[in-house]
Amino acid sequence: DCCLIPESPFYLEGPGGLFEFIERQLKENGHMVIVVAEGAGQEFVAQSMPAVDEKDASGNRLLLDIGLWLTQKIKIQHT
């Protein structure tokens, strides 16, 4: 139903935002699937979590956990 990737910017709130889309899908279908690429939405996570300045074994910057962060935000939005 929804695939979030770093190459395609998205926003969370307001008309056309992710939360509105989730609400609509849940009302229409009662369920939905969200696939999140690890680099998606890093700017949102960085606003609420301390920056990580570490690298993996290949020298790539470690990314913040968008999956866990987004799960928490969706739960807050729908309670």
UniProtKB/TrEMBL annotation:
<keyword id="KW-0021">Allosteric enzyme</keyword>
<dbReference type="InterPro" id="IPR035966">
    <property type="entry name" value="PKF_sf"/>
</dbReference>
<protein>
    <recommendedName>
        <fullName>Phosphofructokinase domain-containing protein</fullName>
    </recommendedName>
</protein>
<dbReference type="InterPro" id="IPR050929">
    <property type="entry name" value="PFKA"/>
</dbReference>
<dbReference type="GO" id="GO:0003872">
    <property type="term" value="F:6-phosphofructokinase activity"/>
</dbReference>
